[in-house]
Write a structure and sequence with these properties.
Number of helices: 5
Shape: globular
Structural class: alpha+beta
Distance between the termini: 25 Å
Strand content: 25-35%
């Protein structure tokens, strides 16, 4: 497994053909794995954040993320250079959902990330409810590896109150060591993602099963 990990707590106190597959809208949770990120392991991170930030409650929103790519060059080529960006989000205001757009803004323009699917996650922990609210939605997006190697900002447009909400800045310091040819950075526009391989990848890295 080759994992590139990103985690950022976003807190406001007061204040195309490779992309052509149809979005998959639902997931089935497969449980917890020590080597992957699941909804349950993300919940544990959220609990830690709630403890740390409880003195500022209520906080309007929180977003945490993780992303992963293929374990080797063979899998990378089957996935056509795409990985998965996993965003878990909480909002005090349910009208912020659904997220309208996740996109990468850089010197040469904007790259919109294509939604794979989303899950509404029940919030049962009272401290999380108090600090971040009871509205949680987890999102999964196709993430081209190329994006993580360019200089720019990964942004979210929420439905109601916030646009251009900064999720993270790239380039990532981590690189896939099996990518030695710069031509492989770009998805092949003449090639589709092998969705059978992508499904296996999603199960391994994020403990989710694509619901076809």
């Amino acid at each position: 497994m080759k994992r590139l990990f990103g985690l950022l707590i976003l807190v406001l106190f007061l204040i195309n053909s490779a992309y052509s597959q149809q979005a998959l809208h639902l997931f089935e949770s497969l449980g917890v794995s020590n080597s992957s990120t699941s909804t349950n392991s993300m919940t544990d991170r959220i609990k830690e954040s709630a403890i740390e930030y409880q003195k500022y409650a209520p906080i309007p929103r929180l977003a945490q993320f993780d992303f992963a790519f293929a374990s080797d060059l063979v899998e990378y080529e089957k996935l056509n250079g795409f990985g998965i960006l996993y965003i878990t989000s909480l909002n005090q205001d349910s009208d912020e959902y659904p997220i309208q757009r996740v996109y990468f803004k850089y010197e040469d323009g904007v790259i919109d990330l294509k939604l794979i699917g989303s899950i509404n996650i029940p919030v049962t922990d009272n401290l999380i409810k108090k600090v971040f609210g009871k509205n949680r939605v987890d999102y999964y997006y196709f993430l081209p590896y190329m994006v993580t190697q360019l200089s720019g900002q990964l942004l979210i447009d929420w439905k109601k109150n916030r646009k251009e909400f900064l999720l993270c800045r790239f380039p990532s310091e981590s690189k896939l060591d099996y990518i030695t040819d710069k031509k492989l950075l770009l998805p092949d526009s003449k090639k589709n993602i092998d969705m059978i391989s992508f499904d296996k990848f999603a199960q391994r890295e994020f403990q989710i099963k694509l619901n076809k």
